[in-house]
Amino acid sequence: RAKASGRGRAEVFDETLRRQLQQRAELEAAIAAGLVNGEMQVAYQPVIDVASDRIIGYEALIRWERPGIGLVPPDEFIPVAEGSRLIGDVDRWMLHAATQQLAQWRAESPAGPGDPDPTIAVNISGRHLADPRVITDVADALAASGLPARLLTLEVTETVLVDDPLAYDHLTELRALGVSIAIDDFGTGYTSIGQLRNMPVDTLKIDRSFVASTEPAHRELVALMIRAAHTFGLTVVAEGVEEPAQLARLKAQDCDQAQGFLLYRPMGAPEAGALLRRTEAAGSV
Ligand code: C2E
Ligand code: MG
Ligand code: MG
Ligand code: MG
């Protein structure tokens, strides 16, 4: 009896697992098809200089409009892509799309490149960063678009840097290409502020949870992160700024750059291009 019910549970478990694996395989196939069929798009979120309010560039964020289903958020399909080799395809697609777009905006600008010359930030998955191919992928995107390397920033999460010495080496090689490196979502992993000194990175992006926190200890931590980053020569970006009081506090804390719904939401390419033209015309980009 006991044996029979035990086997019954095992069968139910097998069935659940089988279904999950199948759903995952289907999602992977759909992502692969989506890349080929033009279902992916880039949303651009402006990043501003806190002191002057000027737009200094954009972060490129992937958007997937899945036929018959609608918009699938990155948090729902990036982790699946990261579980397979697909993430390389996703990142390569994004690298090409984003560099191409910025190069095109620059070429179309009647006044020539702005001042400051706008930058583009692209998110690179940890799995992709651990693959030596990431270096040729980035070099290829720069060569194909003709975008100057100094205008491209690669965003990587801090967990990657701590866990993987290979990723560390790759960052050094990427920087040698002339691109900048930003640590994304800083504060959510295990990196201590002191470790920043030895990291091959240029920019620190403070995670939204710290920016939003009303706890005095967190506010002090933000101030400390900014001071330490500056000591090590890093630029600091605050993520997820939603309220005027947060922006005012960041300004008082000497934060360099900010991004968030208070300032601008991620937008489509036509809108982002038009915004660039307007700010150029106003002499502010
Ligand atoms: P992330 O790189 O930290 O990007 C910031 C996320 O915060 C974006 O979500 C953005 O839309 C959102 N955000 C910006 N301002 C605010 C705000 O004021 N409030 C709130 N609540 N959210 C804000 P999104 O576009 O859904 O992307 C989520 C994550 O997916 C990204 O986090 C990034 O880790 C990943 N991702 C997005 N695009 C790509 C890509 O092309 N390649 C890879 N590997 N990962 C990507
Ligand atoms: Mg990012
Ligand atoms: Mg982030
Ligand atoms: Mg994130």
UniProtKB/TrEMBL annotation:
Residues 24-280 form the EAL domain. Coiled coil: none annotated. It comes from the Bacteria. The keyword Cytoplasm does not apply. One of its GO terms (biological process) is signal transduction. Keywords: Membrane, Transmembrane, Transmembrane helix. GO terms for cellular component: membrane. The keyword Transmembrane applies. This is Diguanylate cyclase (GGDEF) domain-containing protein. The lineage of its organism: Bacteria, Bacillati, Actinomycetota, Actinomycetes, Geodermatophilales. The chain holds residues 595 to 879 of 879 of the full protein.
